[in-house]
Amino acid sequence: MSIHDKEPPGRRLFLRKIGGASGAALAAPALLGGFAASPASAQSVPAGPPRVSGYLSLGPQEAACVEALVNLMCPADSLTPSGVDCGIHVYIDRQLAGAWGRGDQLYRQGPWRPGKPQHGYQSPLTPEEHFKAGLAMLRREAEQRTGKPIDQLDAPRLDALLQDAAAGRMDNDRYALGAWFNDLFYPLFVQACFADPIYGGNRDKAFWRAVGFPGLPAFHGRNVVEYRGRAFPGATKPQSIDDFS
Protein backbone atom coordinates (compact mmCIF):
# COMPACT_ATOMS: atom_id res chain seq x y z
CA MET A 1 0.00 0.00 0.00
CA SER A 2 1.38 3.41 -0.92
CA ILE A 3 2.28 6.02 1.69
CA HIS A 4 0.38 8.65 -0.24
CA ASP A 5 -2.70 6.51 -0.95
CA LYS A 6 -3.65 4.58 2.18
CA GLU A 7 -7.40 4.21 1.71
CA PRO A 8 -10.15 5.09 -0.75
CA PRO A 9 -11.14 7.62 -1.91
CA GLY A 10 -7.41 8.35 -1.75
CA ARG A 11 -5.96 11.83 -1.67
CA ARG A 12 -9.13 13.73 -0.77
CA LEU A 13 -9.64 11.80 2.47
CA PHE A 14 -5.90 11.95 3.19
CA LEU A 15 -5.81 15.72 2.71
CA ARG A 16 -8.84 16.27 4.92
CA LYS A 17 -7.29 14.14 7.67
CA ILE A 18 -3.94 15.89 7.74
CA GLY A 19 -5.38 19.35 7.17
CA GLY A 20 -6.04 19.66 10.89
CA ALA A 21 -2.99 17.73 12.05
CA SER A 22 -0.74 19.37 14.60
CA GLY A 23 3.04 19.38 14.24
CA ALA A 24 5.36 17.13 16.21
CA ALA A 25 7.93 18.29 18.75
CA LEU A 26 10.04 19.68 15.93
CA ALA A 27 7.16 21.40 14.16
CA ALA A 28 8.16 24.45 12.14
CA PRO A 29 6.34 27.69 13.05
CA ALA A 30 4.81 28.67 9.72
CA LEU A 31 1.89 26.23 9.72
CA LEU A 32 -1.65 27.60 9.87
CA GLY A 33 -4.45 25.45 11.28
CA GLY A 34 -6.79 23.39 9.11
CA PHE A 35 -10.44 24.28 8.45
CA ALA A 36 -13.05 21.56 8.32
CA ALA A 37 -15.30 22.99 5.62
CA SER A 38 -16.67 20.90 2.79
CA PRO A 39 -14.07 20.29 0.06
CA ALA A 40 -14.26 22.52 -2.97
CA SER A 41 -13.84 21.27 -6.49
CA ALA A 42 -10.19 21.11 -7.50
CA GLN A 43 -10.82 21.24 -11.22
CA SER A 44 -10.05 24.97 -11.31
CA VAL A 45 -6.68 24.69 -9.53
CA PRO A 46 -3.98 25.88 -11.94
CA ALA A 47 -0.46 24.50 -11.91
CA GLY A 48 0.90 27.75 -10.45
CA PRO A 49 3.97 29.77 -11.41
CA PRO A 50 7.29 28.15 -12.38
CA ARG A 51 8.98 26.48 -9.45
CA VAL A 52 11.70 28.23 -7.47
CA SER A 53 15.10 26.79 -8.39
CA GLY A 54 17.35 28.47 -5.84
CA TYR A 55 17.97 26.60 -2.57
CA LEU A 56 19.01 28.20 0.71
CA SER A 57 19.99 25.06 2.64
CA LEU A 58 19.82 21.93 0.48
CA GLY A 59 22.71 21.01 -1.79
CA PRO A 60 22.14 19.69 -5.34
CA GLN A 61 21.97 15.99 -4.39
CA GLU A 62 19.91 16.70 -1.27
CA ALA A 63 17.51 18.83 -3.29
CA ALA A 64 17.10 16.12 -5.95
CA CYS A 65 16.30 13.62 -3.21
CA VAL A 66 13.74 15.88 -1.51
CA GLU A 67 12.07 16.67 -4.83
CA ALA A 68 11.73 12.95 -5.60
CA LEU A 69 10.25 12.27 -2.15
CA VAL A 70 7.68 15.06 -2.23
CA ASN A 71 6.60 14.13 -5.76
CA LEU A 72 6.07 10.55 -4.61
CA MET A 73 4.08 11.62 -1.55
CA CYS A 74 2.10 14.20 -3.52
CA PRO A 75 1.65 12.94 -7.08
CA ALA A 76 -0.11 15.17 -9.58
CA ASP A 77 -3.80 14.31 -9.90
CA SER A 78 -7.20 15.99 -10.15
CA LEU A 79 -6.84 17.47 -6.64
CA THR A 80 -3.41 19.10 -6.76
CA PRO A 81 -0.32 19.44 -8.94
CA SER A 82 2.79 17.45 -7.98
CA GLY A 83 4.65 18.12 -4.74
CA VAL A 84 7.35 20.11 -6.51
CA ASP A 85 4.81 22.14 -8.50
CA CYS A 86 3.06 22.90 -5.19
CA GLY A 87 6.35 24.18 -3.72
CA ILE A 88 6.62 21.61 -0.91
CA HIS A 89 10.39 21.36 -1.43
CA VAL A 90 10.70 25.15 -1.22
CA TYR A 91 8.92 25.29 2.13
CA ILE A 92 11.15 22.55 3.55
CA ASP A 93 14.32 24.27 2.33
CA ARG A 94 13.28 27.64 3.76
CA GLN A 95 12.47 26.14 7.16
CA LEU A 96 15.84 24.39 7.28
CA ALA A 97 17.65 27.60 6.35
CA GLY A 98 15.81 29.76 8.89
CA ALA A 99 15.76 30.21 12.66
CA TRP A 100 13.89 26.96 13.21
CA GLY A 101 16.48 24.99 11.23
CA ARG A 102 19.28 26.60 13.23
CA GLY A 103 17.61 25.54 16.48
CA ASP A 104 17.28 29.09 17.78
CA GLN A 105 14.50 28.12 20.21
CA LEU A 106 16.11 24.89 21.41
CA TYR A 107 18.16 24.29 24.54
CA ARG A 108 21.60 23.45 23.14
CA GLN A 109 23.80 23.00 26.21
CA GLY A 110 23.46 19.26 26.82
CA PRO A 111 24.11 16.75 28.31
CA TRP A 112 22.78 14.69 25.41
CA ARG A 113 21.18 11.63 26.97
CA PRO A 114 18.30 9.48 25.68
CA GLY A 115 15.03 11.04 26.79
CA LYS A 116 11.36 10.19 26.91
CA PRO A 117 8.99 11.55 24.25
CA GLN A 118 7.61 14.11 26.71
CA HIS A 119 11.11 15.53 27.15
CA GLY A 120 11.04 16.95 23.64
CA TYR A 121 13.92 17.17 21.21
CA GLN A 122 17.11 15.62 22.64
CA SER A 123 20.06 15.95 20.26
CA PRO A 124 23.25 17.97 19.77
CA LEU A 125 22.20 18.40 16.14
CA THR A 126 20.17 21.36 14.97
CA PRO A 127 16.96 20.47 13.09
CA GLU A 128 18.76 21.29 9.84
CA GLU A 129 21.66 18.97 10.71
CA HIS A 130 19.24 16.28 11.87
CA PHE A 131 17.28 16.54 8.61
CA LYS A 132 20.41 16.27 6.48
CA ALA A 133 21.81 13.35 8.50
CA GLY A 134 18.62 11.36 7.95
CA LEU A 135 18.49 12.30 4.29
CA ALA A 136 22.10 11.13 3.84
CA MET A 137 21.31 7.80 5.49
CA LEU A 138 18.23 7.32 3.31
CA ARG A 139 20.28 8.07 0.20
CA ARG A 140 22.95 5.55 1.23
CA GLU A 141 20.34 2.88 1.91
CA ALA A 142 18.73 3.51 -1.47
CA GLU A 143 22.01 3.13 -3.34
CA GLN A 144 23.02 0.02 -1.39
CA ARG A 145 19.66 -1.65 -2.02
CA THR A 146 19.02 -0.59 -5.59
CA GLY A 147 22.32 0.65 -7.01
CA LYS A 148 20.62 3.92 -7.96
CA PRO A 149 20.20 7.35 -6.34
CA ILE A 150 16.77 8.14 -4.97
CA ASP A 151 15.87 10.58 -7.74
CA GLN A 152 16.35 7.80 -10.34
CA LEU A 153 14.03 5.27 -8.69
CA ASP A 154 10.58 4.61 -10.10
CA ALA A 155 7.58 5.26 -7.87
CA PRO A 156 6.97 1.64 -6.68
CA ARG A 157 10.61 1.12 -5.62
CA LEU A 158 10.81 4.50 -3.92
CA ASP A 159 7.51 3.91 -2.15
CA ALA A 160 8.76 0.54 -0.86
CA LEU A 161 11.93 2.24 0.36
CA LEU A 162 9.94 4.85 2.30
CA GLN A 163 7.68 2.16 3.74
CA ASP A 164 10.74 0.41 5.15
CA ALA A 165 12.17 3.66 6.48
CA ALA A 166 8.91 4.69 8.16
CA ALA A 167 8.52 1.26 9.76
CA GLY A 168 11.99 1.46 11.31
CA ARG A 169 13.39 -1.37 9.19
CA MET A 170 16.43 0.76 8.28
CA ASP A 171 17.25 1.81 11.84
CA ASN A 172 20.66 0.95 13.29
CA ASP A 173 22.55 1.59 16.53
CA ARG A 174 23.66 5.02 15.36
CA TYR A 175 20.53 6.47 13.77
CA ALA A 176 16.77 5.86 13.92
CA LEU A 177 15.62 6.58 10.37
CA GLY A 178 12.04 5.67 11.24
CA ALA A 179 11.87 8.46 13.83
CA TRP A 180 13.50 10.81 11.30
CA PHE A 181 10.79 10.16 8.74
CA ASN A 182 7.80 10.10 11.11
CA ASP A 183 8.81 12.93 13.44
CA LEU A 184 10.70 15.27 11.12
CA PHE A 185 10.29 14.73 7.39
CA TYR A 186 6.59 13.86 7.37
CA PRO A 187 5.53 16.74 9.68
CA LEU A 188 7.46 19.16 7.46
CA PHE A 189 5.69 17.71 4.43
CA VAL A 190 2.27 18.22 6.06
CA GLN A 191 3.15 21.77 7.10
CA ALA A 192 4.33 22.54 3.57
CA CYS A 193 0.96 21.43 2.25
CA PHE A 194 -1.15 23.63 4.51
CA ALA A 195 0.98 26.64 5.49
CA ASP A 196 0.24 30.01 3.96
CA PRO A 197 1.72 30.15 0.43
CA ILE A 198 3.96 33.04 1.48
CA TYR A 199 6.22 30.44 3.13
CA GLY A 200 6.89 28.65 -0.16
CA GLY A 201 4.56 25.63 -0.08
CA ASN A 202 0.86 25.28 -0.87
CA ARG A 203 1.45 27.19 -4.10
CA ASP A 204 -1.67 28.88 -5.46
CA LYS A 205 -3.43 27.62 -2.25
CA ALA A 206 -3.87 24.23 -3.93
CA PHE A 207 -4.26 22.29 -0.67
CA TRP A 208 -6.53 24.89 0.91
CA ARG A 209 -8.81 24.54 -2.11
CA ALA A 210 -8.68 20.75 -1.92
CA VAL A 211 -9.94 20.67 1.70
CA GLY A 212 -12.18 23.74 1.51
CA PHE A 213 -10.12 25.96 3.83
CA PRO A 214 -11.18 29.59 3.23
CA GLY A 215 -8.01 31.29 4.40
CA LEU A 216 -6.97 33.86 6.96
CA PRO A 217 -9.78 36.21 8.05
CA ALA A 218 -10.41 35.91 11.80
CA PHE A 219 -14.20 35.98 11.43
CA HIS A 220 -14.09 32.43 10.08
CA GLY A 221 -14.52 31.34 13.69
CA ARG A 222 -18.25 31.98 13.47
CA ASN A 223 -18.43 30.44 9.99
CA VAL A 224 -17.26 27.14 11.47
CA VAL A 225 -20.48 27.13 13.51
CA GLU A 226 -22.79 28.59 10.89
CA TYR A 227 -21.66 26.30 8.07
CA ARG A 228 -21.05 23.12 10.07
CA GLY A 229 -21.91 20.19 7.82
CA ARG A 230 -22.62 22.46 4.86
CA ALA A 231 -20.50 23.72 1.98
CA PHE A 232 -18.84 27.06 2.73
CA PRO A 233 -19.44 29.44 -0.22
CA GLY A 234 -16.06 31.18 0.01
CA ALA A 235 -13.90 28.06 0.10
CA THR A 236 -13.18 28.11 -3.65
CA LYS A 237 -11.29 31.42 -3.27
CA PRO A 238 -9.24 31.19 -0.06
CA GLN A 239 -7.35 34.29 1.06
CA SER A 240 -3.69 34.28 2.08
CA ILE A 241 -1.28 36.79 3.62
CA ASP A 242 -0.44 38.10 0.15
CA ASP A 243 -4.11 38.90 -0.46
CA PHE A 244 -4.05 41.30 2.50
CA SER A 245 -0.67 42.87 1.73
UniProtKB/TrEMBL annotation:
PROSITE patterns cross-referenced by the UniProt entry: TAT (PS51318)
Signal peptide positions (record): 1-42
InterPro entries: Gluconate_2DH_su3, TAT_signal
The keyword Amino-acid biosynthesis is annotated on this UniProt entry: no
Keyword set, alphabetical order: Signal
Name this polypeptide is given: Gluconate 2-dehydrogenase subunit 3 family protein
Species this chain originates from: Variovorax paradoxus
Source organism phylogeny: Bacteria, Pseudomonadati, Pseudomonadota, Betaproteobacteria, Burkholderiales
